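Quick illustration, no need to memorize.
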Amino acid sequence: MRTSSAARSFVSQYAKTTALVTVAGVGLFGLKKWIAGGVCNSKARLDGKTVLITGANTGIGKETAVDMARRGARVILACRDMEKANKAAEEVKKRSGNDSVIVRKLDLASLQSIRQLAKDVLASEERLDVLINNAGIMSCPKWKTEDGFEMQFGVNHLGHFLLTNCLLDLLKKSSPSRIVNVSSLAHERGQIYFDDINQDKDYQPWRSYAQSKLANVLFTRELANRLQGTGVTAYSLHPGVIHTELGRHFWPTVPLWKRVFYMPLVFFVKNPTEGAQTTIYCAVEESLQNESGLYYRQQCPSPPTQHTDTDTKASGTHYNRDCSHQCVLV
């Protein structure tokens, strides 16, 4: 009783302050929910279908795998670290109630590994309905792939480029099928450096990352053009700013004073489940079946960035639509 009386007395004495704190708190949580975006409300089932996801042992890749498995799909986790992949597969099975989850070895920094995975998939799978190119590396030091390419461009773009082309015939055979390329908002600052594609002259981690993400978007557009009439559609997307292992190379390089500034912003960062929603949307939403080549944010197609140099950057074609019916905030 004394505690209750003391609380009422405090609220009465500091009514304006209490009201301000309450409104601010509700506002912050509301903003966090808005930033998190919508959820994919599609009820589409994937029974009898096969989905391959690269980098599915952690982060949004694993959350996407759980969703695909819950819809009844046979899910292939294509990962570099087999120990983590096997643990992730067990978790996906447990959370989804679907035991049709398998693991395949894939190192996107090795063209030989990519070709071997494709060979294994073509030999063991009768169909491939959805290919989700999710794996990636961000802001790493100046590393090279096994074949001598700059690591970010090699893994984020070239690796997925080769994998997709190796599996195209199976995707066509399984049509209608989809290719989903996880890009990033960073592509808007990107440029393709054709005269220095490996950034050997002046390597800057973020510039290289932006180049690789722009390449994802351009690849998606070209796939859409070349695959017209085949029943295979392609989509690229920005998943949002998410708390995953992707930032493991970036955070240690941030100066202490910047970390202090960034820390409060962590509150607004998406969790992996929230971050996976646009990927899931592009993979299963029925209304997208006749659309291809578009770039999505928060489950809505976004206009590509306007660029003037068409030799090195994305073209300036805009795509506008009212997509309020597709984005459901919960």
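Strands lie at 50-54, 74-79, 101-105, 130-133, 177-182, 232-238, 295-297, 300-302.
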